[in-house]
């Protein structure tokens, strides 16, 4: 009897383990929800490591983002039509291209925009199966931090968090970019505080949601006037980027380590405390591109500092940076660049370290240098203040918008210049300092984190109150401006917004209407008008005539908290159901075995 009991116990243990175990194939794991998970790439000090093997990880990557042609954009209809194509949601496209990515010896792709409303399981699983990781920009052409009129507002925040919520479950997400070339020369360094604030808030969000520790970093250009201060700015103070990418185009054709500028850049980042890599590379002044820089990047002179890089780009377009072109039938045609890149990546075998060896080395050496933020007095052209914008407060902004007397509904993209015209007018009539965001002075108005249409609604309503109007007619005639009847509700109906509304009314009461003539004179020396044109910084045109995605006006903010929570509960329920089925199956098998024994 005891022998039968032992046998039954062994069988039971085996079946339970089998029902819960993750099937492992070629370093990947398959989970109960059907996702194939690669080992997570983690950051230790200034290097990437495979979390399972402990080996150092070097990116052999390529930018992977098709864009709509001008003809497609012109033919697009509807407010919700995106300017970009999401390659991770198009299974036909990604499944067609993955064999070519593998042929190129790619282990990482960079995707600049995805649609968080779409499903990405098929493409992300297929990439995982082939050992390919994804670096993902959080922005999209119509919603990004704009370099000339930067803001960190609820609209951009909603976009970023929706992308994170959609993509965090995939273990082959290597990291998120909070911005791309937002500051690209000495005229717009004031935009960098907004990106740094985004990094701060995204990292906090990931932690508070209980997601795995997904790195959040920044991708910069290689501008001689700003590169040194930018590199310091994003790793100084309490808020730091987890990694730092540089879009590097110094090496053209058959250049060399000594003449290209690579030697100088390597020396500059020798003591950098976070991983640094080429987030784009591949000068195209000479075609076909021989990609001789690959040998240097993964060789002994650079691999101790750099974690590899990503070639720009996979698809051949008007800018002539592609390694393949897609024919009219949707078939892939390899260009001459393809063979050169394939051969160079195949030869590249960087000599790295292991996590264990590196930790030992860190313990025995002095800690990484602490970088101070660039001094605005020492560098007059540097305008990025250490004081960062506040975290966007969606509840505050929605509260305000719901209870203002005059509201502005969002404009569609072709009308985006209307925002500028309306702000120019209204800010001559009222004080707009409460919506101004000044990254150079580090001053941010109380409502500077609200969306563009919420801010415009605020200033129009302020003008309405200052005119002592009570006729339900807003002081601006515009098809998108309307009177909000809900603003007449009693305070009992808006308890949660009471403090916000009272503060707003007190502010209005303490301000007097300016006459137009005085306003025009004063406005020359007072705060500038607030202009909100959200076009994509991520894919703006480079000095070397690289054509990239661009955009304009932000889209409507959607509240996804409830939807996301419901999704998580449903996902958990599905996982429990799978485990329950496995357990029931195990019990049935055990019953049969016991029956046979007895």
Automatic annotation (TrEMBL):
Cross-referenced InterPro entries: GH, Glucanosyltransferase, X8
Q: Which domain of life is it from?
A: Eukaryota
Q: What class of enzyme is it?
A: transferase
Where is the major localization of this protein? membrane
User: Residue span of the signal peptide, if any?
Assistant: 1-27
Quote the EC number: 2.4.1.-
Q: Where is the X8 domain?
A: 404-499
Its membrane topology is listed as: Lipid-anchor; GPI-anchor
Note down the stretches annotated as region Disordered: 511-555
Q: Recorded GO terms, molecular function?
A: 1,3-beta-glucanosyltransferase activity
Subcellular location per UniProt equals: Cell membrane; Membrane
Name listed for the protein in its UniProt record: 1,3-beta-glucanosyltransferase
Origin species: Henningerozyma blattae (strain ATCC 34711 / CBS 6284 / DSM 70876 / NBRC 10599 / NRRL Y-10934 / UCD 77-7) (Yeast)
């Amino acid at each position: 009897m005891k022998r039968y009991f032992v046998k039954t116990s062994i069988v039971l243990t085996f079946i339970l383990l089998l029902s819960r175990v993750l099937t492992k194939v070629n370093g990947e794991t398959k989970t109960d929800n059907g996702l194939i998970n690669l080992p997570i790439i983690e950051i230790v000090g200034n290097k990437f490591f495979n979390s399972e093997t402990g080996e150092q990880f070097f990116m052999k990557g390529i930018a992977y983002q098709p864009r709509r042609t001008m003809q497609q954009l012109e033919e697009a209809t509807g407010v919700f039509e995106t300017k970009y194509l999401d390659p991770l949601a198009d299974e036909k496209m990604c499944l067609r291209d993955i064999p070519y990515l593998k042929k190129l010896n790619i282990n990482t792709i960079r995707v600049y925009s995805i649609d968080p409303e779409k499903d990405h399981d098929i493409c992300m699983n297929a990439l995982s199966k082939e050992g390919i990781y994804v670096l993902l920009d959080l922005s999209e052409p119509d919603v990004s931090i704009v370099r000339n009129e930067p803001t960190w507002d609820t609209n951009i925040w909603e976009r970023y968090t929706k992308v994170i919520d959609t993509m965090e479950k995939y273990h082959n997400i290597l990291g998120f970019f909070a911005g791309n070339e937002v500051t690209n020369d000495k005229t717009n360094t004031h935009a960098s505080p907004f990106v740094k604030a985004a990094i701060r808030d995204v990292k906090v969000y990931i932690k508070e949601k209980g997601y795995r520790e997904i790195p959040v970093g920044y991708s910069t250009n290689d501008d001689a006037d700003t590169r040194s201060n930018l590199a310091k700015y994003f790793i100084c103070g309490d808020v730091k980027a987890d990694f730092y990418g540089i879009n590097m185009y110094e090496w053209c054709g058959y250049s060399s380590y000594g003449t290209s500028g690579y030697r100088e850049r390597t020396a500059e980042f020798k003591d950098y405390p976070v991983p640094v890599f080429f987030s784009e590379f591949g000068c195209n002044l000479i075609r076909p591109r021989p990609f001789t820089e690959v040998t240097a990047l993964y060789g002994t002179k650079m691999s101790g500092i750099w974690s590899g890089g990503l070639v720009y780009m996979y698809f051949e377009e008007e800018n002539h940076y592609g390694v393949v072109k897609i024919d009219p039938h949707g078939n892939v045609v390899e260009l001459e660049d393809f063979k050169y890149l394939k051969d160079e990546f195949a030869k590249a075998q960087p000599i790295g370290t292991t996590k264990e060896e590196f930790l030992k080395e860190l313990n025995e050496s002095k800690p990484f240098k602490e970088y101070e933020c660039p001094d605005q007095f020492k560098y007059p052209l540097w305008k990025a203040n250490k004081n960062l914008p506040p975290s966007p407060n969606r509840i505050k902004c929605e509260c305000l918008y719901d209870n203002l007397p005059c509201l502005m509904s969002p404009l569609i993209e072709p009308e985006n210049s209307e925002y500028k015209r309306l702000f120019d007018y209204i800010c001559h009539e009222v004080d707009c300092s409460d919506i101004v965001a000044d990254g150079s002075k580090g001053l941010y108005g109380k409502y500077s984190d609200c969306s563009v249409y919420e801010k415009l609604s605020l200033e129009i309503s302020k003008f309405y109150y200052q005119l002592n109007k009570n006729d339900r007619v807003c002081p601006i005639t515009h098809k998108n401006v309307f009177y909000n009847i809900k603003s007449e509700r009693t305070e009992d109906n808006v308890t949660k917004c009471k403090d916000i509304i009272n503060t707003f009314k007190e502010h209005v009461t303490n301000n007097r209407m300016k006459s137009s003539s005085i306003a025009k004179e004063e406005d020359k020396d007072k705060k500038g008008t607030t202009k909100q044109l959200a076009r994509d910084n991520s894919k703006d045109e480079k000095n070397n005539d690289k054509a990239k995605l661009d955009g304009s006006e932000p889209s409507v903010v959607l509240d996804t908290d409830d939807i996301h929570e419901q999704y998580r509960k449903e996902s958990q329920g599905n996982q429990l159901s799978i485990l329950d089925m496995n357990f029931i199956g195990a019990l049935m098998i055990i019953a049969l075995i016991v029956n046979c024994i007895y």
